[in-house]
Specification:
- The chain is an alpha/beta fold and 311 residues long.
- It has 2 domains: 8-144, Rossmann fold, CATH 3.40.50.2000; 162-307, Rossmann fold.
- The protein has helices spanning 17-22, 24-33, 45-52, 71-83, 96-102, 134-144, 189-201, 215-224, 237-246, 256-263, 278-281, 301-307, and strands at residues 8-12, 38-43, 59-62, 88-91, 112-115, 122-123, 171-175, 205-208, 229-230, 249-253, 268-272, 288-292.
- The strands form 2 sheets. Strands 3-2-1-4-5-6 form a 6-stranded parallel sheet, sandwiched between helices. It has a 6-stranded parallel sheet with strand order 9-8-7-10-11-12, sandwiched between helices.
Length: 311
């Protein structure tokens, strides 16, 4: 049911890229539920430009997540939140930090709040919430607040000119990176190079994507497979979505960009180790398939090639 009761609404989502992609459906649901409201998103600087084009928000605020000892910054945030006169807040971050923001409002002036903050008006108090996939968890949370329908992520609004990368019309994506602190989540880079070579033999152009810090992975793949294009550190979030939309298929580790690519509908194979649980964090999309091996070094190139239909 569409409602015009609330004129000023705050949505909180501070998380990493994969978390933001998984929240795209809830963002759209909130906008459709409050079509005439002035909706503000509180997020991190990384996502401001990307989400401005979505049409889901009237304003996007950035949160630098101050340390608890930075009293002046907390007072500034408290003042900004109170002056905005929000009447409802959807806390999709549901962390200790975002729940603390609930306490920055005066007791008399607190808005309706959907989240897990103690004392909030629409608490998601399912004791099993931490064992639910993000998509199901957020859908249940919003249902409690009266939003009964949450669509899948839609990236059709994203546009970018990827012609500057010089890619041919039959390319696929390699996403060999991931958290620098959890290297066990990464399939060996030499295996990615082998997949790239196999795909070239089938007429596909390999394109490696990742962050600046993952550029060495792209360089190594290209050194072993000269036909590959290394775009590590050269793409914006908009580019990732369009690359995913145009790619024939993709393969990668459990990391942010694979969520973006999968959400476009690209045929995507995601590689999981024992370091993460796909039941909680797997990318979603029409063409997504998963391969899981406790130690990714033991996942063979042949198995991945078969999943990608390269054999």
């Amino acid at each position: 049911m569409v409602t015009n009761k609330h004129q000023r609404i705050l949505v909180i989502k501070l998380g990493a890229l994969g978390d933001v992609v998984l929240a795209l459906g809830p963002f759209e649901a909130i906008r459709k539920h409050h079509p005439k409201a002035h909706i503000v998103l509180l997020t991190t600087k990384t996502f401001k430009h990307f989400l401005q084009s979505s049409g889901y928000f009237n304003e996007i605020w950035t949160d630098n997540r101050p340390g608890f000892w930075k009293i002046a910054e907390w007072l500034k945030l408290k003042s900004k939140l109170r002056e905005a006169k929000f009447t409802r807040v959807y806390d999709l971050q549901t962390s200790d930090r975002s729940s603390w923001y609930f306490r920055l409002f005066s007791r008399q002036g607190r808005p309706e709040w959907s989240g897990i903050a103690r004392g909030c008006s629409y608490p998601h108090n399912n004791p099993k919430r931490n064992f639910m996939h993000s998509i199901e968890r957020q859908r249940e949370q919003l249902a409690i607040a009266g939003i009964s329908s949450v669509p899948s992520a839609d990236l059709s609004w994203v546009s970018s000119d990827i012609s500057r990368f010089g890619i041919n019309n039959k390319f696929f994506l390699l996403i060999p990176g991931g958290s620098a602190h959890r290297l066990a989540k990464r399939w060996p880079v030499d295996f990615y190079a082998e997949i790239a070579s196999k795909a070239i033999g089938k007429g596909f152009q390999p394109v490696v994507i990742g962050s600046v810090s993952e550029n060495l992975l792209g360089i190594k793949i290209k050194s072993k497979c000269p036909g590959a294009i290394n775009l590590c550190g050269k793409t914006k979030l908009d580019d990732l979505a369009v690359l995913g939309r145009e790619a024939v298929f993709a393969v990668g580790n459990d990391t942010g960009p694979i969520h973006m690519v999968a959400a476009t509908g690209c045929r995507t194979v995601v590689l999981f180790s024992a370091e993460s649980n796909p039941a909680l964090t797997a990318p979603r999309g029409e063409g997504v398939s998963l391969l899981r091996q406790e130690n990714l070094a033991e996942l063979s190139v042949e198995a991945v090639a078969a999943a990608l239909r390269l054999v």
